[in-house]
Predict the structure.
Amino acid sequence: MRELMLGLRLLFGGGRGNRVRFALMTLGSSMGACCLAIMLTIPGILAVQDGRVAARQPDSPHSGATAGLPLWLERADPYGSHVLTRVFMARGTTAVVPPPGLKAIPGPGEVFVSPSLRELLGREPGLAHRLPGREAGLIGPQGLARPDELVAYVGTDRDDLPDGRRAAGFGHDSAPPPALDPSALDSLRFTMACVVLLPLVVYLSVCARLSAAERARRLAALRLIGMSIQEVQRVNAAETVAAAGLGAVLGLGEFWVLNQLAARVGLPGFTWYPGDGALSASTLVACLVGCPVLAWFVGRASARKAAANPLAVRRAAVEKAPSPWGFLPLLAGSGIAVGYCVAGATGHVPDGSLLPALLIPSSALLIGFGLVAALPSVSRFFARRLARSTRSLALSLAMRRNEAEPGSVLRVSAGLVLLVFVTSLAQGVLIQFDESIRNSSPLQSYDMPYEQLTAGQRQSLEQLPGVRGHVITLQASLVGASEWAEAPDVVVATCAQLRAVVARVGDCADGQPIRLWDGDGYTGGPDFAGRKILLSSKTGQRSAPLTVPKRVVRYRALDSIGLGIQPVLVPPSMLPTDARPGWGRYVLVSASDPDTVRQVLDGIGRIGPTIEVTPEGVSPTDFQEFAVVRTLLTVGMVLGLVIAVAAFVVAATDRAVERRSQVTALSLLGARPRTLRAVQVTQVVLPLTVGLVLAVVVGRVAESGYLVYCQGATFWDDAGLPVLLVGTLAVIVVAALGALPLVGRRIDPELIRRD
């Protein structure tokens, strides 16, 4: 405690310069604590939103009379990157507490909508076809996961919900799947940690080491007058801990203000209520305890050299060359990533076992740590080579200074170098998510249960704008075989209708059954030629038997449209008029562009609002999940950019202030201001460029290794490289412009009087 009080007395009694430095350290720590709070609060926001979704799920009746309970039927449709949730409800004779956000269960013809859906209905009138009835009110915030959620409760008659579920209450049964899949959330957490925490550690270290050279000489003086090594380290740590602790408190206040503003404005694809972003106990502990603890270790580590060897920090001392062991983690992490790249190029991708799941995160962490550890050695190597070969005075002065002080390069460049590296990882995560939800087929199919449609509805669906064709697939059974025996599926369509939903059809003739064979699909199984099949009936009756023909026509199906195993094409005229299949699919087909998909879904909602529609290859929850992940990764990269730029500005300014005496000496020797500015810019830009190029190379290797591990369609992200290179060039330009004003015109001889 005595050393801590001494450190604080030295801080406040050391003059105006020490107080200004303490204020800058505090402000820098507050920004870091605010960014840390943002990152740690995101999982809590998602958990609160999942809890509100779970609270509106219906409870199944357990025992007793259930005939009078309300009926409940939910339909979720994709609408752009959002999910349109329609809940059809029919009142019963038994009183039940309404879902959260509603004062009462809607009656027939009443529609309660969320505020965002009301605004959308004003812009998109065609959407009202999916919501039959008149608007009777708004859903309260307690019934919505997010302010921009599209939810509607539609009141209807009990006869209109034959497949409705009886609801004994809401929010007590098992919860639905979370908004983000656990694997997606794990990938997001790891990427956010890399994007934010790695630059944040560098930034907090930079803030804790402002005026490092001057402080080191002050600590060396304390060591020379008799203080022990541990006492000197504790004296230095007192200042950094005080700045980090006060900065953490200020940072939490900054986060509260930012949460209130951002929650009311929202982010594209991700919104929340201000209360969702309340600070949890774990976040408070991480900020109020974690930041001072990190500052304590940084303060002790930065004072180790001055405490162990006080004469080593004198102005005339030569800095020790960086250790080459810093390359070891970089080589280890890159080796793992290169191994996956080779496996992807040779077609020997490892399976998703536990070992690869540990190797890929370890590879990213090793590369990130290795970039920071190897940067001084790489900078010193290039500085020595350039200083020997150049004839430029400015370049020679800059390189000799970087050769003499390679450690100063680390403070200035580490944050930006890590930012470029983790940006490559973020690109790989976005590519993997985009591949998992993207419909690569030119056609979009819409599957509906055949038994839920009347003849009039089927006729209306066929005439919807945007629909290019339709087919009916029915389940059949073999005559004389067991109920569970494998049987071919029956496709009811004309040859023209078949050509509209598949990529290619051979010589097809109408008026007779044809056996279809997909050369790119399923080819095994028994041969059903000549066997008799029956269509299953909902009432248990059997239709007239059909003979599987021997004639085979080849076709090629699209990925999003499947016709079953060894299907038999049957003309619509051969389907019995009184046939009521017990299981079948009515498939509409349209183009896969978003406008056409939305138009067709609106039309289906107008014809049959409660029809269960499955757009193959288009999962509404996946689109919403991708939008959330993309937004949160964008937030993480913006935070990483702010942190990295702030670390660069703080470190470059502090470095320039420490070198004022050297700049003054060069000015008195006759160096022109233009030369000094060129030296300053070169000292910053050249090592930064070397580090950024290295980050781009290993970042691309790490990204490709991650994509190979995910076993998606893309292993090599060619489209992301130009964006990354342009961003890297922009970072270099900004760094050069930021270094220009750090050399002034005024010469102060007082700065070199002590030398």
